Amino acid sequence: MNEFNYTVKDFKSENEVRWCPGCGDYAIMNAIQRVMAEMGIAHKDFAVISGIGCSSRFPYYMSTYGFHTIHGRATAVASGVRCANPDLNVWVITGDGDSMAIGGNHFIHLVRRNINLNVIIFNNKIYGLTKGQYSPTTEKGFKSKTSPFGTIEEPFNPGQLVIGAGGTFFARSIDGNIKLSQEVFGEAALHEGTSIVEVLQNCMIYNHGVHDLITDPAYRAERQLMLKQGEPMRFGEDNRKGIVLEKGKLKVVTVGENGITPEDILVHDATDPDPSIHLALIRMHLPEFPVALGVIRKVAAPTYDREMKEQILRIQENRKIKNMDDLLRSGNTWEVKDNGFSNGREK
Amino acid sequence: MKEAKVIEMDEVAIRFSGDSGDGMQLTGTLFSDASALLGNDISTFPDYPAEIRAPQGTVGGVSGFQVQFGQKEVNTPGDYAHVLVAMNPAAVKANAKFMKPGGTIIYDKDAFNEKNFRKANFTTDDPFTELNLIDYVKIGVPITELTQESLKDLGLDNKSILRSKNMFALGLVCWMFNRPLDYIEEFITSKFSSKPTVVQANMRVLHAGYNYGMNLQHMTPRYMINPAPIEPGLYRNINGNQATAWGLLAASEKSGRPLFIGSYPITPATEILQTLAERKDLGVKSFQAEDEIAGITTALGASFAGHLAVTSTSGPGFALKSEAIGLGVMAELPLVVVNVQRGGPSTGLPTKTEQSDLLQALYGRNGESPVAVIAASTPSDCFWYAFTAARIAMERMVPVVLLTDGFLGNGSEPWKIPSMADLPDIHPRIAKNPGNYKPYERDGNTLSRSWAFPGSEGFAHRIGGLEKNITGNVSHDPDNHQKNCEIREAKVQRIVDMIPDLDVYGDPEGDVLLVGWGGTFGHMISTVRELRRKGKNVSLAHFNYIKPLPANTGEVFRRFKKILVCEINLGQFVAYLRDKLPGFTYYQYNKVKGLPFTVQELEDAVTKLLEA
Question: How high is the ipTM of this complex?
Answer without folding.
Answer: 0.96
